[in-house]
User: Fold this.
Amino acid sequence: MLTPPEYRLINGRVYDAVPACLYRARGNAAARQLATADWLVRDRHDGRYVATLHHGRARFFLRSSRPRPHADALDELLFDAATGSGLRPLSDLSPLLTELGLDAAEYAERSGLAPVAEPMQLEYAGRDRYRRPLWLDYDAAKAWRRMRAAAGAEGVALDAISGFRSAHYQMGIFRRKLARGSALADILQVNTAPGFSEHHSGRALDIGTPGQPPAEEGFEATPAFAWLQARAGDFGFALSYPRGNRHGIAYEPWHWCWSERAQS
Assistant:
């Protein structure tokens, strides 16, 4: 059973579960259901609200046009919550890459990137610039809070643009860009293929500063970026995609990833 006070994301195979108090619902009936719930269960594929948990009992949102939620997938999610931490297997990547016409082994060899496993549980790390809950790996969350506080003490404001993203969320980015007419080759210069993003690990952050547009190269001209260059390593963060990086990813001064090895 999931206990209400635990501010964490349970990352299941089909569904995930997040503390209901951190989220809002559209529509009065759904909002009332969410207001009395301990946990919110969402579909990992599209973010759709599936059910709420009230002291361990599930109440499904009524969506007559949607297929009936899988009870076995919900049971699997609760089992994942009870069994503790760990990494999700990479077994569900093939359908996503096949949809894009990509072969995992060929893409890995060409890009120099390895598949990234997702944690089964993630830590609440506050909210991002858009007031969305920010989810990170436990150690990365602690490091982010310390780094942001240290920067603030020196007069530098850092904010998170995004943190953990699942492979299915990453696939959504590709689908939207392809629908707008972008070529796959162009997308792959700015977004890693689903399953290969550092964001899947919960250790990567897109970082910005107030008044600066998100995820733009102009971030490198800000005091925030200068501070990160000088101090991020003290907290275990390193710039993942500098100019001319070997992965062929466009320069991203906003993208920083935590690791124990990165600590100065």
